[in-house]
Amino acid sequence: MPDYRAQFLSRIDDRTAVIGVVGLGYVGLPLAVEFAEAGFRVVGYDVSQRTVDRLTAGESHVLDVAGATVARLIADGRFTVSTDPAGLAAADAVSIAVPTPLVKTRDPDMSYVDRATNTIADHCGAGTLVVLESTTYPGTTRELVQPKFERRGLTVGVDVFLAFSPERVDPGNPHYRTKNTPKVVGGITPACLEVATALYAQCIDTVVPVSSPEAAELVKLLENTFRSVNIGLVNEMAIVCDRLGVNVWEVIDAAATKPFGFMKFTPGPGIGGHCIPLDPHYLAWKMRTLNYRTRFIDVASEINSQMPDFVVEKVAQALNDARQSVNGSHILVLGVAYKKDIDDIRESPALDVVRLLEGRGAHVAYHDPFIVRFEEEDGHDHASVALTPAVLAGADAVVIVTDHSSIDYQMVVDHARVVVDTRNATARVTHPTARIVSLSAS
Ligand code: SAJ
Which neighbouring-strand residues pair with 102? Predict the structure, then answer.
């Protein structure tokens, strides 16, 4: 019986190991590049022919990976990309970085992980390390992934090695990239942990071993539930301050002067993105199967998802103060990406704000320097309008939903009639001619 553990460690040490990456998106592509730059041959597999074609042409669809880097690594023969999984057979280690979305009922959609794991089990045999990186409910690695290898007569920890290591990619972050973000790893067995740790140590500065895949799965869920709950707290504080006639931004900024025991979060029109609105629901779902209700997650989600309604109510009040109704009004939404200075609109609360305003009969236009156009769920297509004094003056109300840094807020308040500011983006303007309505009374 070969000693697969020793073989794997030896191939890692002399860099003859071949690394497979399944899923070449904002997590998988940077990881593949790090391994290739560390001197390993990397086999990239993705089901999207468009993704593979663009990478093969030396283009990168991922914010933090330069197309030239991809082209160089492919030209050097260090990185191959394909929609054919056969190349995975050569891999000694395979990382899975595929989506884990929610279905409409907010239950996990594990179909991508299921399909990827089946593909790997079909093409990779004894001696392989498999690491799941996709954010998922605790127990996935042991309950969903492990049986697929055991059913093929392989013993995990002896013939194959299995671990979970949460992705911590923060797209567009200028300071933290894959290489310098600590990597948590949890193995099914001690040997699994040992080989997975050895693998990541080749291209990531800090590896953080934990005692099980469940611990590693929960680390990720804690990190992002922490954000969701704290954002929910400050969003509720915005509602509280609005009822009390207090400026919530002043309260938060003053609280943030506390040098210990406080961490600043800011209220807004709700939460977007593919992490924070979704990840906590993986934990909530798992705990429901164990007859436990994760109340913090549910309450935070309830508050965060009601913020678009709260914003639209502020718009209605602002128009009403000018003896206008929402119905028939012309409203300009500023910023539709899910957070500032990025081009991602997934789960953006702006989509809810637009839908709710249109539902009340408003004519809604938007401007976003990062999002040229988008389509609503009902198929209604929107294209970003130019931000000009005439466009601002022509709107009955302007709603700042995403506070991109490149927008000239002084110009906005100099030409708009009413500005509903959900992000405190107008905090530093001077002598505004527009009436500014803050998220909380000010
Ligand atoms: N948001 C607020 N108030 C806040 C912070 C965020 O309303 O104080 C909103 C944002 O506008 C956005 C949503 O919440 O709509 C999520 O924002 P985020 O800053 O959490 O950004 P994400 O979704 O890109 O989260 C990612 C996560 N990274 C990973 O999952 C690997 C998260 O763990 C990071 O902490 C976060 O980036 C980050 O710090 O930028």
Answer: 108
